[in-house]
Amino acid sequence: MTDTQQRHLGLFGATGIGVGAIVGGGILALAGVAFATTGPAAIVAFAINGVIAMLTALSFAEMASKFPESGGTYTFSRKVLSVESAFTVGWVVWFASIVAAVLYALGFAHFGLIFCQELSSANGYQWDWLHRPILVPVTAIATSVLLAVGLMMRTGGGGTFANVAKVAVFVVLIVGGVWAVCQQSAGDTVASFRPFFADGMGGLVQAMGYSFIALQGFDLIAAVGGEIKQPARTIPRAMMLSLVIALLIYLPLLSVIVAVGTPSGESITEAAAADPGSIVANAARNYLGVTGFWLVIVAAVLSMFTALQANLFAASRIAQAMAGDRTLPRMMSRVSAGNGNPTVSVIVTTTLVCLLVVALPDLSAAGAASSLIFLVTFAIAHWLSVLVRQRSPANPPPFMSPWYPVVPVVGGLACVSLAVFQGIAVPTAGLIAVVWLSLGGVLFLTLFARSARLRDVSSMAANPELSRLRGNTPLVLVPIANPQNAEAMIALAETLVPAALGRVLLHTVVVAPPDWAPDLDPGPADRSHVVQRALISASLRLGVHAETLVTVAASPFEEIARVARLHRCGSVLLGLSEIAEDGPPAPMEALLSRLETDVVVLRAPNDWHLAERQKILVPVAGHGGHDYLLTRLLGSLTRNQNCDVKFVRVIPVASGLGELRRVEKELDRLAYDNFGGRCEREVVESDDPVDAVVSRADASGLVILGVQRIGPRQKLFGRFTRQIASRTHCPIIVISRRG
Predict the structure, then answer these.
(1) Which of 97, 122, 214, 588 lies most in the core, judged by the most C-beta atoms within 10 Å?
(2) What is the rounded distance in angstroms from the CA atom of residue 319 to the CA atom of residue 309?
(3) Does any domain span residue 610?
(4) Which residues contact 682 (CB under 8 A, 6 or more apart)?
(5) Is the same domain home to 542 and 620?
(6) How many CA within 13 A on the CB side of residue 384?
(7) Model pTM?
(8) Does residue 666 share a domain with residue 557?
């Protein structure tokens, strides 16, 4: 699927997702709570929350323009934080979106049944549908399933018709309210706003904490960023536009509710305290009669429907992004061949929504937990935007929020403060979040950790900027004693750690006795000068910005281990002229056991260099002891070179068909985990594994093998590696994972 096919949402569609999620449900559910807490000052509470939401939207838009992929806060975290932290963020955001979808599904069912009940009553039928408890969850589940089918069959998620109809209904409510205000005296209007702060500034802050989530939904635009055209331009506009539309509806509606929404002599604070859930409907009935009541019911039905659709759409994309990174089952990343929709992810997400509809004992606490999680992730988005600016000054986001760092600092502190309030106001919300996090931690460690970490290593190797975004500046140490292989070693080091990412330290050891007198014995220094000139010449030819280090020691291998430890090297690249088939352990093997870093050993002819088109053979035995280093090495080698990778597994001839099929599946999984499946796989039946590998090595440009671990901190090349090296002239890389 091409990027053009994937990106099908324009400004109107992206804004529709935000409007669908924000407008309606929040104001209908939370206006009464805000009025009961602070009186007419609820208008100010919503306005201040609107400012905080816009600040948060600016940071979200900046991150989404930098990483225009689906997943929202999870994707931002995966780029900047560790894979474990990213999973934590994605896991809770997915849960929060699912719980939000549950609440909107039940809200749709509740208001839908009210609509049907009132409609039947108007036609002479007295059906009390709301007192049949089973109808609400059944309606919620049926609606969720139907929406899921729609999401799998078409592209989109903004609910265009329902959005337009919903906004139109709210406009009618506002216009009708303004007309009613114009019909009453100015004195009555002013009196309805007194006292403005019913419970002082404390009440205002409480109202902000209760009602901020009414503006949640703009973040869902970032969650589907991979499907938006021209994301760097469209996402910021869609986020701000959806918030502006919401505030242009919320603030006038709240104002007319205060002015003409209660009978004469009754304050909005008293009316909201008596029945907070019905304050909007009762207000509309007061100034528009029965028509106003029906308009609110219609607005509620449409609002819950579009919010449910938007949350299902976004939650499925979050799960798809996580599955693509192996932090959820891989099958959830699969997309339909016809329209590119993540069918499995939609099914799993909707199934969880349906289960929670009937399983959650305390929906209000679950909703509060969802609000708490969203607020925490909003604060994380602010923090990540600061980290990206600091760590990637040479490659800033296409869209950069103004007034930096005021926007992320003020917005982040506001979100943290509201999250703390939510945690104190509803302690059960924090408990629910902790339980869900604990479940996710167990699943990650038992099912996803290895594949997710391998995928993460592969991503960083393929895109070195990710390491810089995470604040890493890796150092590779390259000890070189033979000037003839300097170019090959430096080129491989630059491939492992590009100059823009980290540092390459070329190390020359002047081998001399402890009592060496350079004036009397200039030989060691002269040999070092020859090597140094070769290193400088090779670096200039290759355009590699390498550093050089010269040290003096009697034992070069002990000195290499000392320098690697002193400089805290991330990896060490060693060159070796030959690996003997028999004989005692080589000094190089003793060095492997002493080094606490990843080690790559290159055995290649003096004139060997990384070719533009390279065939790489990777024999595997199924143990996976060096998977992380192998994944990093393959990702680095194939980042710039057009390499063909082939994984080979040798099994005995008499293994049988069942064993052959099992090994084929194991090899497929290994190749997919290590290299994303973009390679050849071959299972060879042979009783001589060395001969099977050698026959294929001769047709390859490079063979990658692993060292043998025979005990704690004891590593050898191993008999298999020694035999392969002695029977082929093909360049060989032997890898040794740290520890």
Answers:
(1) 97
(2) 16
(3) yes
(4) 646, 647, 648, 649
(5) no
(6) 33
(7) 0.87
(8) no
